[in-house]
Design goal:
nine-stranded antiparallel sheet; alpha+beta; globular; 13 helices; single chain
Length: about 400
């Protein structure tokens, strides 16, 4: 992670002029900064803006939001800043909602995670018919990472046929193999079990009960509104506004959700009780079902369950698609949560890879590393940024 941060810092220097425009814009970003630690992290993030970092950060401790602000530019061309509630495409971070919908349907008696694909897709090829929902949820069904023509315009039924026709890359039930197409199939299962579209089911059964009013799916007209200024950036390339982002049916279930840092925290709060899922479902949600090789990390259902370098439990997931990159981390034993959503990457790395390790150490009270308050008096050289990860 330190190498990533250093490489990122070098490339981000190219966007200094845009960052200067953001600092000159009025009014200043408002948000929440409630504690001394939050103020130190806020100072750190502000200094990283000089290296082109952009995104919305939310940090909560013991059920209270202590830092929630936007940093950098949502639109470089117009000099418009990221705000606390700026929407972002969250890519594979969407998978947790697909998994939660499956568990919701199980709690309602509409399916079980031991059901096979054959129940929902009777015409599935023989090598897919016996795959279980559990295997797909834990990436152990053997589906490949991606399908061809990821953003091709296809209808939902055609997508399901294409995924079912994909050759398996590994034996079912073996080592996990992260798969976007597998989660697309789960979206099809949700539609067949619920009798509703994937989007309608998630909106009515997950988003609305959790109070997630700013969450939806790309392709919706609301992202074309004048107030939605988020654009995607890879290095110096502008990949367009959120409302015109290349999508299509193939991202359903695996990466089509647009949301805000605030809404993701509302989701986490809803998961803390039984408003969305009963305790039995939440246990399955966060159980480390499939170990990732020899590492201490494992897949739950739409989450990665792992141990920090300090030996504490963390439940997390990330998402990366073009310039959009996101990460949500729940530090279970430490009782704090970090959510960072960004619209830019450089040199192959998303900005989410720069500050999160430092935020963890600061929140956990671990001494050392780059001291955020010291950054107020000078711009950190690239060498100093190595301590960020």
């Amino acid at each position: 992670m330190r190498l990533h941060a250093a490489r990122t810092a070098l490339s981000l220097a190219l966007t200094l002029a845009s960052a200067a425009a953001a600092r000159a814009q009025a009014p200043a970003d408002t948000g929440v900064v409630r504690t001394d630690v939050a103020a130190a992290l806020d100072t750190l993030m502000k200094r990283l803006e000089a290296f082109g970092l952009s995104g919305a950060l939310l940090v909560a401790e013991r059920g209270e939001v202590i830092l929630h602000r936007g940093y950098g530019l949502a639109s470089r061309e117009r000099g418009l800043r990221v705000r606390p509630e700026t929407p972002f495409l969250i890519a594979a971070l969407s998978m947790q909602f697909t998994a939660a919908a499956i568990l919701k349907l199980e709690a309602d008696g509409k399916l079980t995670t031991t059901d096979t694909l054959g129940r929902f897709f009777p015409q599935a090829p023989a090598d897919k018919r016996g795959l279980t929902l559990h295997q797909i949820l834990t990436h152990t069904a053997g589906f490949p990472l991606l399908e061809a023509d990821k953003f091709a315009a296809v209808n939902r039924d055609q997508l399901m046929r294409e995924v079912l026709a994909l050759p398996l890359q590994s034996a079912p039930g073996g080592q996990p193999l992260f798969s976007y197409p597998g989660y697309a199939l789960l979206a099809g299962v949700i539609e067949r079990a619920s009798g509703e579209t994937f989007e309608r089911y998630l909106t009515s059964r997950l988003f609305r009960p959790a109070g997630m009013r700013s969450t939806g799916f790309f392709g919706e007209a609301r992202w074309l509104a004048p107030g939605v200024v988020t654009r995607s950036y890879t290095d110096s390339s502008d990949e367009g506004p959120l409302g015109q982002f290349p999508g299509g049916a193939k991202a359903v279930g695996s990466g089509s959700i647009v949301t805000t840092a605030g809404d993701l925290y509302r989701w986490e709060r809803a998961l803390r009780d039984t408003l969305i899922l009963p305790d039995s479902a939440k246990q399955k949600f966060w159980t480390p079902h499939a170990t990732l090789g020899d590492s201490p990390n494992a897949y739950g259902y739409g989450w990665v369950v792992q141990r920090t370098a300090r030996g504490t439990r963390m439940i997390a997931h990330a998402g990366d698609l073009f310039g959009y990159n996101s990460e949500m981390r729940r530090y279970v034993d430490d009782n704090f949560t970090v959510i960072f959503l960004s619209n830019a990457r450089t040199d192959g790395f998303g900005y989410r890879e720069v500050p999160l390790e430092t935020i963890e150490l600061r929140m956990a009270g671990v001494p050392g590393g780059l001291d955020p308050p010291a950054l107020a008096s000078r711009r950190p050289p690239p060498a100093a940024l190595r301590a960020l990860g």
